[in-house]
Task: structure prediction
Amino acid sequence: MATISFHSLEDRLVKSFFNVESKDCICPPQQPVCTCGHRASLRIVTRRPVRPTDEEVATNPRARSARLRVAEKI
Result:
């Protein structure tokens, strides 16, 4: 799954979703035993967002705020 976001709030939602879905357990850290039963369904491909290059921004100024995040379904 590849997601392009143009606003920081959109990017935060995508980043949070990718982080939650890439972990096996989402229980609080103080809980000694996992009770959620959550399993990872994604593997994050890009740890940091891919930003447009200076050449791309010169030809397309509206791309300056774009961020691309990629995850692979397991």
